[in-house]
Amino acid sequence: MNEGMEFVVRAALIGAGATLVMDIWAALQQRLFGIVPLNYAMVGRWIGHLPKGRLTHNPIGATAPVRGEAALGWGAHYAIGIVFAAALIALTGLGWARNPTLLPALATGLVTVAAPFLILQPALGAGIFASKTPQPNVARRRSLVAHASFGIGLYLAALLVAWLMPSPAG
Fold it and tell me: Is the pTM for the entire model greater than 0.90?
């Protein structure tokens, strides 16, 4: 397989795997601590209203539902995870994906928290850095933990993919 195809395959598998780790962590937190995870249908609702020219909502729950919003939101969630994994591999090179280390993956996970802080939370009506939520610091901490779990997921998924797809000889 050529390097371009290898990049795409590794990014897709690592990104989907890391997002799955993040979702497993969210499910564990809900089961063990009663922490309600993000409702990805609301992300789908937001995306569904973008073609209509509506970027922000106050709050998204008061906005009219869109057809297929749950599937749209979950699909976007995994697609974004794949894009973030591709960015990590683009920055570090295929060498990292072939022989992953924790620090670049964890750093990427933590940097990706900028997306909800600066894009998604304001768009859904929660304000920049969750400033309009009832407990902004709790929301911020939960976002950081979620994205740290994504970073750990990037590392774990990359290890698995490296094991399944050994490096080409050379």
Answer: yes
